[in-house]
Please model this.
Amino acid sequence: MSRQQTQRLAVILITAVAVLVFIPVLLVIFYLIASGIGAINWEFLTAMPRNGMKEGGIMPAILGTLILTFGTAIVSMPVSILAAIYLAEYAKDNRLTRTIRMAIVNLAGIPSIVYGLFGLGAFVLAAGFGTSILAGALTLGIMTMPVVISTAEEAINAVPQQFRTVSQSLGATKWQTIRHQVLPHALPGILTGMILGLSRAAGETAPILFTVAAFYVPTLPSSVFDQTMALPYHLYVISTQVPGMPLSIQYGTALVLLMITLTLTLLATGVRTSVRRRRDW
Model:
């Protein structure tokens, strides 16, 4: 078999695998839309649930999900990016840093329920925060840090070394070089890590089950020490704990959660694409 035939066969196989992966995702999305679009209206998006959650809306769960996602970003993103800068630009290549990188990779693969149990012990009980937004955001933030650190470090390492050399040869300090040359060019990759981390946090059920989520809260949260409803846990509750729950409400809730995560992803992807187009390498 010639080189061109081998390359053509490889392209066909890769395309077939991509299609096999993409088709089930499309089928799930279309099924959710077909099954849940009938339940979505203005009242469903803005009203409080009533009659045992069989009527009304899911506004508290939507708001709680957005609050937790925003809190996760505040907790995890600054620390993760600073850690990635240290590992990529300042840390020496020795046994300690290799161990730290291995630990970060392993932490990224830990099941989310383990993070939930850690958050229960560390923040709910030991720190005395109780089941609250603060405990949930801290738990989700720690859960997303390994993914963000790994992707941000790779993005920083991908910036050509010549940028650093030229900047420092012109008199810039190491931090000035990182701030004005490295980080702007690494921003698309850093945003990719943020997208992955926040999308995972927005859809997680196990961590918030132990730290923040409530079956039903009659009022909206007023501080970070309050409990809140959240879409992933709300979907679990109405699907398994509420007898006679209409399927349209279950699928409508799932569709809203999908739309929120998809919207966050599209917004971040748009920003990433815009930054990438301005990149000069």
The mean pLDDT is 90. The beta strands are 49-50, 55-56. The longest strand covers residues 49-50.
